[in-house]
């Protein structure tokens, strides 16, 4: 019980973007339990990950010494599916030796091959301060803007559409605002698995009469609470959403005042939507026209309607178009800028909002200032007192392509620093991604475990787990929240912020931040100066006092704005821009050889590439092995019973998993979570990119499923 612990330390859950506040109960330097605190996003609630998924921090496989690859040991991606003993491939080193080697070789590569030879992947699992410092290291020390992180695999397309349409990539309304909604449209999202505490707000709203419309090719748990469930065919998002917009316009349900005063480009939208009647789209998306019309009417005429969406919208080659349709639907109905309305892209990782805000993206400095904007470029050159590249860098998938570029390519990437990400599991077409990582002349990986990516490194730097450091993270609701250090890192593992600074010093940068705890505050305060329009009023002292403050927050007295866009949009003309979208098919459609569709995603118990949750005893016990879900009819066709092995193949790879029956999975499709290294879903996925957000099409590719 709480009485018998040595200390209780307040922090934030390290998993999803809901941002539940927690207390770590520590006894004898071990976290013995986690309790939910009364934070603004969770009010004491936690899901199974937050409640039981803390023991990864004490796992015997934690990295405790810097490691250097032994001479002559080849980088072998074949090892990744069975994970041998890393001691065969690496030797332990001192920090001095490992850092000198890690940074020295990067510096040499830049000297020999120029400013484009290096790249860095930062992390949405780390703090804002780490994200800020990491992108500063790449831009000022590597010499290019080749810095990115997992937002590229997550909501990059949503953000592209939001920046274009409403002028801000963040949510307009917070999750718990669903209690003020009369209707919520949850599309391309499985919140009970991926944002479980956020889902409790939705279910409680439904209990009080809010209508939930669940639109998804997979019928998930939230369907039990839904007023209408639209199981539309995979890849037909634009058809469904355009049909809803068409209904609104045709049936005279447009909020004329809103459109006249606050939107631009309505005529173009109206023109384009003509071919998209509910009747014309019904056979494409597989939803009866009358149902599409009914839902569109209910959305338009309710007092307040809100849209929440996830990767089902964003992870397509038409992800940006999908999000454009959501913005248009919200805008033509005037369902934004008031309580219970608006646009909420549910953020995945606990700090993917904050890491993006802090500039961990190749085309923008902190606070979404375009690197190519002369004013922003000049401002940051003056602020950081150095020359900066004004060309956008490459994105995650592009960077991996550039690792395999011919020697003659002046943009060939030869050295990389990966902090807390696991592209050897998370990127599409893993055989290619792993080859790309192996092709690097120098790969530095900083992590807490020997991840699949670390296996391919030249140097591995042992970092600290979330309970071992103090820092801020920003949740899906724009809440900046403070997590405090509860433990010391094991062995010689070090805080990430310290490691980044050591790397910077050896790259020749002259940074002067004070020691550990004050250092975090100093970095935060520097970051705050670069993001005055967002977090200008959120001082470090205030975070220490209040624990959570919502931005935009402009002055120390400002309580923060939970709802934005009440009277203007932060676009150049103050209006929301309506951008028409047409149907673009998935990059790879089923055919005779690969007749089924693969949908990848997550499940409640396991987090992303599984490096943390699969090392948590409780979570591992609940979901111990890789499974592939299909509906009963599909399993019957294959002649496979649940629990039996099946093989799933695509043009890029093949995995063997256990069949699971899930009648919410659509006909002709198989669903695989991507957390399992033994049967990595991303060996199968297609690296085709959305042209605007540069996000890969994780939600649709052609596969062949067979028994055995
Ligand atoms: Fe953690 Fe998300 Fe679960 Fe909350 S809902 S406890 S933030 S994983």
Automatic annotation (TrEMBL):
Reported EC number(s) for this entry are 1.2.1.2
List membrane-spanning regions: none
Recite the UniProt keywords alphabetically: 4Fe-4S, Iron, Iron-sulfur, Metal-binding, Oxidoreductase, Repeat
Q: Which GO terms describe its molecular function?
A: 4 iron, 4 sulfur cluster binding; formate dehydrogenase (NAD+) activity; metal ion binding; molybdopterin cofactor binding; NADH dehydrogenase activity
Q: Which GO terms of type biological process are on file? A: formate metabolic process; respiratory electron transport chain
Q: Where is the 4Fe-4S Mo/W bis-MGD-type domain?
A: 6-61
Keyword Iron in record:
yes
GO CC annotation: membrane; oxidoreductase complex
Q: Which domain of life is it from?
A: Bacteria
Tell me its family: In the C-terminal section; belongs to the prokaryotic molybdopterin-containing oxidoreductase family.
- The name this protein carries in UniProt is Tungsten-containing formate dehydrogenase alpha subunit
Q: Which gene encodes it?
A: fdwA
């Amino acid at each position: 019980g709480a009485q018998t612990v040595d200390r209780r330390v307040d922090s934030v859950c390290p998993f999803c973007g809901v941002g539940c506040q927690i207390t770590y109960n520590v006894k004898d330097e071990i976290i013995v339990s986690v309790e939910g605190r009364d934070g603004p996003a969770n009010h004491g609630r936690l899901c199974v990950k937050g409640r039981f998924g803390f023991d990864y921090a004490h796992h015997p496989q934690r990295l405790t010494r810097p490691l250097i690859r032994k001479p002559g040991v080849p980088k072998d991606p074949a090892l990744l599916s069975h994970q041998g003993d890393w001691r065969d491939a690496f030797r332990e080193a001192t920090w001095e030796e490992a850092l000198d080697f890690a940074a020295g070789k990067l510096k040499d590569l830049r000297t020999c091959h120029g400013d484009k030879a290096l790249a860095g992947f930062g992390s949405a699992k780390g703090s804002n301060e780490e994200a800020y410092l990491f992108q500063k290291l790449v831009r000022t020390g590597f010499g290019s803007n080749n810095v990115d992180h997992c937002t590229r695999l997550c909501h990059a397309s949503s953000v592209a559409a939001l920046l274009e349409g409403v002028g801000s990539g963040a949510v307009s309304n917070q999750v718990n605002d669903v209690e003020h909604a009369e209707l919520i449209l949850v599309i391309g999202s499985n919140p009970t698995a991926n944002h479980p505490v956020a889902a409790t707000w939705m279910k409680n709203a439904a209990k009080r009469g809010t209508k939930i419309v669940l639109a998804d090719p997979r019928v998930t748990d939230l369907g039990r609470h839904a007023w209408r469930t639209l199981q539309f065919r995979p890849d037909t998002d634009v058809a469904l959403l355009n049909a809803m917009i068409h209904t609104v316009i045709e049936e005279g349900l447009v909020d004329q005042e809103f459109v006249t005063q606050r939107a631009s480009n309505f005529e173009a939208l109206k023109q384009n939507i003509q071919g998209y009647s509910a009747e014309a789209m019904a056979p494409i998306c597989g939803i009866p026209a009358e149902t599409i019309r009914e839902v569109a009417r209910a959305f338009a005429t309710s007092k307040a309607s809100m849209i929440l969406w996830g990767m089902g919208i964003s992870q397509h080659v038409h992800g940006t178009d999908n999000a454009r349709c959501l913005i248009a639907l919200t805008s033509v109905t005037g369902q934004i800028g008031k309580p219970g309305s608006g646009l909420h892209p549910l953020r995945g990782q606990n700090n993917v909002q904050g890491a993006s805000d802090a500039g961990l993206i190749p085309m923008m400095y902190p606070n979404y200032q375009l690197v190519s904007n002369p004013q922003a470029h000049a401002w940051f050159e003056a602020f950081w007192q150095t020359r900066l590249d004004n060309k956008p860098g490459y994105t995650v998938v592009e960077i991996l392509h550039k690792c395999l570029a011919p020697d003659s390519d002046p943009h060939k990437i030869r050295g990389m620093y990966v902090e807390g990400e696991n592209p050897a599991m998370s990127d599409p077409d893993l055989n290619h991604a792993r080859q790309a990582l192996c092709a690097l002349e120098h790969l530095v990986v900083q992590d807490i475990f020997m991840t699949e990516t670390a296996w391919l490194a030249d140097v591995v730097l042992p970092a600290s787990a979330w309970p071992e450091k103090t820092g801020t993270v920003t949740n899906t609701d724009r809440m900046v929240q403070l997590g405090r250090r509860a433990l010391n890192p094991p062995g010689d593992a070090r805080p990430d912020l310290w490691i980044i600074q050591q790397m910077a010093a050896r790259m020749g940068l002259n940074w002067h931040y004070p020691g550990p705890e004050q250092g975090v505050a100093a970095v935060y305060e520097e970051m705050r100066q670069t993001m005055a329009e967002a977090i200008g009023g959120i001082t470090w002292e205030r975070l220490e006092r209040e624990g959570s403050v919502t931005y935009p927050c402009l002055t120390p007295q400002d309580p923060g704005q939970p709802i934005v866009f009440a009277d203007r949009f932060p676009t150049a003309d103050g209006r929301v821009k309506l951008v028409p979208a047409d149907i673009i098919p998935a990059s790879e459609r089923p055919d005779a050889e690969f007749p089924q569709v693969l949908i990848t995603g997550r499940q409640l118990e396991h987090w992303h590439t599984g490096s943390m949750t699969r090392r948590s005893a409780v979570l591992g016990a609940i979901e111990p092995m890789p499974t592939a879900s299909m509906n009963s009819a599909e399993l019957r066709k294959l002649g496979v019973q649940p629990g039996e092995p099946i093989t799933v193949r695509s043009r890029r790879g093949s995995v063997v998993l256990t069949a699971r029956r899930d009648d919410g999975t659509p006909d002709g499709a198989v669903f695989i979570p991507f957390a399992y290294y033994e049967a990595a879903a991303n060996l199968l996925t297609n690296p085709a990119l959305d042209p605007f957000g540069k996000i890969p099409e994780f939600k649709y590719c052609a596969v062949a499923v067979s028994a055995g």
